[in-house]
Every structure is written in C-alpha cells, then in structure tokens.
Amino acid sequence: MTKYGCGITYLVHPHNKSNLVDSFVELYGSLGIVRFIEYPTLKSLLGRTLNDISDLQIMARLHEYQVIGRKLPTDKEPVPKLYRMRLFAPNEVVAKSRYWYFIKKVSKVKKASGEIVSVNEIFEKKPKTVKNFGIWIRYDSRSGTHNMYKEYRELTRCDAVVACYQDMAARHRARFSNIHIIKVATVKSADVKRAYISQIVDPKLKFPLAHRHKVLDKKYAKTFIAARPSTL
Question: What is the C-alpha separation between 182 and 118, in angstroms, rounded?
C-alpha cells in the first residue's frame, strides 16, 4: 500500500484479487479515494526503480577478484599472452563476465576465442585498520563520459568501492553498470587531496563528550535536590 496524491494506492496482483478488493472498489472507488494498480502495470511504471534496487543488492556484497585469462592456443600462437585483471564483483560469475567485457576493449580477445586460466579472491591484509583510499573511476552520465577521482576512508578496498558506488548513485544518479573502476590505491594522510577526508585524518582530532552523566555513590545521593540534573 502506497500513498498516491491525496488518496491511497493499493498494489494488487491479478491472481490475488478477492471479494474484499471488489468491496473496496465499490465503497471507495466512486469517491476517488482508493486507486488500484495491477502488477504488470506497476512493473512497467517502476521498471527503472526495480533496476536501481537490484544495483543496491549488487553493491552491498562486493568482493575483489583476480582473474587471469588468455586466447585459446593455436598453431600460429601456441603460447598466448596472459591478461590479468583485478575486479570488484558480487561473485565469480559476475567477475568472469566483467573480465570479458573489459578485456575485449583492451585487446582482441573475446569469450568465444579465449579461456579463463584462474580466478582468485583477494582479501585485505589488515581489515581492522582504517585507511585512506583513492579511487579513479570513469562513468557514463546522461550527457557523456567523465573521469573522476574520489577519496574514501574505510577498512578495506571493497568497502571503499561500495562507498564509491553509493556516493555516485546519490550525487550523480550513476548506476552500477555505468561506473568503471580504473584504479584503487591506498593514500597516505599527508597526500590526501579532498577536504572532506583531510579534516578527519588530523591526529589531534577531538570530539566533545556530550550528555555525560556523573554517577554518585548511593551514600552521597540525595532524594531531593534544588537544581535539575545536568548532563553537560
């Protein structure tokens, strides 16, 4: 059930109609208060939104993979050249698919005439240490293709990439399929360029401790006091 204008919209699947729904139509439909939308119509109206939801599901569980592939050996080239690529994907199947997508742009190798040699997942060496990450990306907007550099402060490379995808979706309405991660590197605190990260990496950074409650021993506690208790 969702609000629609000044009335109410009910989302009804055509196979789940009941007498209750018909009674609602007779009672409120004539007054213009209730509006019913069948599922096929809803799917066509919200097709773009459903794609965005699937993008969020992909971004929420990214892993880093190292994929190595090559052309199939031939008599002319018995030992083909190996191509290695580091990719961020939710699983190995998507990692292989994106590998062929990118390798086809780099060299004349495609899935029909090539093979995957190995697929390995890469894990963070220190996943409990906060680090600064710089990410170089290229994304397709509604007006063209743009290059961009962003910085994030996260625990792992995968967390930084997920934050990048979410940031691009919020600021530029860029989808997962339109964003290409070119490079992810660890940045030292002295080399941070973005102001929203440099203000956090200050080693003398302090935050006020608000709402601190002083705990007194029961023998010093009073039942009635003249002033209100303060947490400042």
Answer: 21
CB 194 within 8 A of CB 164: no
CA dihedral 123, 127, 129, 133 (to 10 degrees): 50
Q: What are the tens digits of pLDDT across the range 145-173?
A: 999 999 999 999 999 999 999 999 999 99
- Separation between Cα atoms, residue 116 and residue 104, nearest integer Å: 13
| Alpha carbon distance 194, 207 (integer Å) | 21
β-pairing verdict for 145-154 and 63-71:
unpaired
Backbone angles phi, psi at 150, to 5 degrees: -135, 155
* Tens-place pLDDT, residues 89-118: 999 999 999 999 999 988 888 899 999 999
Question: Look-up: residue for tokens 């605190």?
Answer: 189
